[in-house]
Specification:
Elements lengths: L21 H15 L10
């Protein structure tokens, strides 16, 4: 199973017509890094 750490999934706003502020993108990157580092555990069940 691939995830953020493995490059199987990621976040992008490329091609979106919704403007996302730099503050929001910065916070999302912090959360992404916390998930990759194991600081945030994402459930693997729906």
């Amino acid at each position: 199973m691939l995830g953020l750490r493995d490059g199987g999934v990621d976040l992008t706003v490329e091609g979106s017509n919704i403007e996302v502020s730099e503050n929001v993108m910065q916070k999302l990157e912090e959360i992404r890094e916390a998930i990759v580092n194991g600081e945030i555990q994402v459930p693997d069940e729906l």
